[in-house]
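Proteins fold reproducibly. Next comes a concrete instance:

***
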Amino acid sequence: MTRSMYAVVNQKLSWNSEVKLTNEACDESAFWDENVDSLNFHSPWAPLQPPAKFVYSDASDHACSSFIDNDHKIFHQNWSPEESSKSSAWRDLRTVDLAVSAFALALQGKRVAWFTDNTSVVSIVHNGSKVTELQSLALSIFNVCARHGISLETKWIPRSFNYQADLLSRTIGFDDYTIHDDVFRMLDCKWGPHTVDRFACSYNAKVSPYNSRFYQPETEAVDAFTQNWDGENNWILPPVSQISRVIAHAGACKAVGTLVIPVWKS
């Protein structure tokens, strides 16, 4: 939380010269103004408690994943073409950013050991980065942990010890499709307003709140079939294999909503 301020200081011509504060440096100054008193009460010699949670994460060219050990909580997300083209450090760091947001409530107030096979991620989470987009991700992780009282310690492990997260990250969700926003707005005007998106993820949800297959940032619930759909106007765009189950569940709940299915002539 001082990296941008140091960048400003390094622009000086002499000790008596003026410098121009950047927006990032102002944000860091505001952080210290708001938090220096509370942080000053933390003793660096306080006895360390063992981690309460162990989390593993990994990213491939196609997707990213993370899971909480012994907790049956899994995060998974496909990359967009733009995200796939990013560096491995960005993808692995973005995975931590997304997963810590998705698991925030489960990790709240706990000491967490987070395992990754990317050494750059360990360094950047703890120290930040001179690369702007990596520093932004590090700050995002920091802010989520600060809001939820999460004490996060990232640790490097060999890829052979991270095989479960590695396997999950190489799994592509072929049911991860959506419809164009214009089409949704047309149907929302016709049969809406819809109040919940039952099959979505953080980047394609048409309505908030939404349900997701895996843990996602800001998801209301994992697995739409565990929810009572009654009392809502449901937006339902399910995997094709789940259409008959959707109809049965909607009938059992006496639910109201819009079910969208593809024209599958074969």
Summary: The radius of gyration is 22 Å. The beta strands are 53-59, 63-68, 73-78, 111-116, 151-156, 196-197, 211-212, 221-222, 233-236, 256-259. The chain has a mean pLDDT of 89. Residues 191 and 258 are 7 Å apart (CA to CA).
